[in-house]
Amino acid sequence: MLGCGITPHHREAVLNLHKIVTELKRERDRLGRAIALLEEGRAKAGRKTAAPGSPKPRRRRLTAAGRKRLSDLMKQRWAERRKKGN
Questions:
Q1: Cα-to-chain-centroid distance, residue 80
Q2: Measured between alpha carbons, how far is 62 from 68 in angstroms, rounded to an integer?
Q3: Which of 84 and 55 is assigned the larger pLDDT?
Q4: Separation CA 62–CA 73 (nearest Å)
Q5: Rounded to whole angstroms, how far apart are CA atoms 21 and 28?
Q6: Which domain holds residue 17?
Q7: Number of domains in the chain
């Protein structure tokens, strides 16, 4: 080894550089996986909304007759509670 011009100090520096590059690549891969998971989560969260142009979910609405029926039932219920309270 003495004849090739590489000193022990130089060889150690090259090995340390290789180790640093290996660790940086490992960190890059870890960050890439983390970013992919975050983007996947964001994409899944965005899927909860309806697609453009799709019909909106229909809401149930009371008819006037249904509203009157409920009103009468609630009035009856509260009247019975008042009678029990006295």
A1: 49
A2: 9
A3: 84
A4: 15
A5: 10
A6: 1-47
A7: 1
CB atoms within 10 A of CB 71: 10
- What value, to the nearest 5°, has the Cα angle with vertex 35 and ends 34 and 37? 65
Residue-wise pLDDT tens digits, 1-42: 445 677 877 778 888 899 999 999 999 999 999 999 998 887
Is residue 54 a part of any domain in this protein? no
This prediction's pTM: 0.39
CB 50 within 8 A of CB 56: yes
Residue 16, Cβ neighbours under 10 Å: how many? 10
For residues 41 and 37, give the distance between their C-alpha atoms in angstroms, rounded to a whole number: 6
| Domain contains 58 | no
